[in-house]
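Title: Comparing notes on inverse folding

I've been comparing how different people in this forum approach sequence design from structure. To keep things fair, I'm posting one structure and asking everyone to reply with a full sequence. Here's the target:
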C-alpha cells in the first residue's frame, strides 16, 4: 500500500462495487473484498438475523461483530454508525432508540449512501438519516451522540488516531461507543500487508491490538472494556494468492493472530467545574 489517498480511493472503489452486489457474492470473499476465495467463506461476520430491527436487504455480510448488540442503546438516544454501508446497523440501532431516537449513518462511499437511503425510505424510517463524509472529519456537530457504533470499518481508515479524536469530539459527555474491528497480534507477512485486496478485505489495514487500545486511551476515554474477541482464520486458498508454500507454512507456525474484537469505552461526564477538579 502506498499513501493514504491511494488507500482511500482503492477502498472507495471496492466498496462501491460491493454496494451493487448481493450478500451471497460478498460472502464468497474476504470481508466482501472480491472473489478471492474458491469456496464460500464468510470469514468475518456474525449472524445478525436474530436481532430485532435486522434488515436483510441492508445486510451485505461485511461486518466482523455485532456492536449494536453490546452498545447499551436506550430509548430516545442519538446513535451514530461509522461506516454505515447499506444501513443494517443503523436499522438495528433504530429498533433500540425507538421512534423518539435519532440514528445517523456516515459513509464515504456514495453508492453505499444511496443504497442505505433507499432501504430507509422503503422501511419508512423518518428518524434514520445517512450522510456522506470521512470518518476523520465527520459531518456532524460536537457533543451530539449518546452512542457511537461501528462494524469492521476503522481498520480501513489509515489515520485511526484522527478517527478516535473525532469520536471523542462527537460524543456527548457521558456518552460511549461500542466498536467491532479487526486487530493483529504479531506481524503479518509483507506480501499480505502490502496487498490491496487484503486491505479492502479488512486484514492488512488492521493494527496491533495493543496499539489500538492505546489509541483509545490516549484520547481520554475511560472504562475501556473488551466486550467480545474471536480469532479470524483466513482459509488457505486465500492465503495461497499471496504466499508461497514455505511462506504459508512459516506464517501458520508463527504466533501471529488476527482477531475480531468489540471494544467499549466512555467519554467522561462534564462535572461542571474547573479542569482537573474531577
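Reply #1:
Here's my take.
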Amino acid at each position: 500500500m502506498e499513501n493514504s489517498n491511494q488507500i482511500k480511493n482503492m477502498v472507495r472503489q471496492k466498496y462501491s462495487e460491493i454496494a451493487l452486489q448481493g450478500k451471497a457474492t460478498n460472502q464468497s470473499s474476504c470481508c466482501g473484498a472480491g472473489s478471492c476465495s474458491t469456496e464460500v467463506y464468510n470469514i468475518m461476520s456474525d449472524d445478525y438475523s436474530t436481532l430485532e430491527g435486522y434488515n436483510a436487504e441492508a445486510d451485505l455480510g461485511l461486518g466482523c461483530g455485532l456492536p449494536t448488540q453490546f452498545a447499551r442503546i436506550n430509548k430516545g438516544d442519538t446513535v451514530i454508525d461509522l461506516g454505515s454501508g447499506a444501513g443494517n446497523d443503523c436499522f438495528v440501532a433504530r429498533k433500540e432508540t425507538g421512534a423518539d431516537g435519532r440514528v445517523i449513518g456516515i459513509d464515504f462511499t456514495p453508492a453505499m449512501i444511496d443504497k442505505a437511503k433507499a432501504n430507509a425510505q422503503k422501511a419508512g424510517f423518518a428518524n434514520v438519516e445517512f450522510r456522506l463524509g470521512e470518518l476523520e472529519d465527520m459531518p456532524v456537530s460536537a457533543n451530539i451522540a449518546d452512542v457511537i457504533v461501528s462494524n469492521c470499518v476503522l481498520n480501513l481508515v489509515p489515520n485511526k488516531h484522527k478517527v478516535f479524536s473525532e469520536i471523542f469530539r462527537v460524543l456527548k459527555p457521558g456518552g460511549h461507543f461500542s466498536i467491532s474491528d479487526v486487530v493483529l497480534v504479531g506481524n503479518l507477512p509483507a506480501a499480505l500487508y502490502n496487498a490491496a485486496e487484503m486491505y479492502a478485505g479488512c486484514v492488512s489495514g488492521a493494527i496491533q491490538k495493543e496499539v489500538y487500545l492505546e489509541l483509545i486511551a490516549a484520547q481520554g476515554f475511560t472504562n475501556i472494556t473488551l466486550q467480545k474477541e474471536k480469532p479470524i482464520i483466513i482459509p488457505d486458498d486465500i492465503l495461497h494468492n499471496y504466499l508461497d508454500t514455505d511462506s504459508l507454512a512459516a506464517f501458520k507456525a508463527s504466533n501471529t493472530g488476527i482477531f475480531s474484537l468489540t471494544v467499549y469505552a466512555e467519554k467522561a461526564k462534564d462535572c461542571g467545574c474547573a479542569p482537573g477538579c474531577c
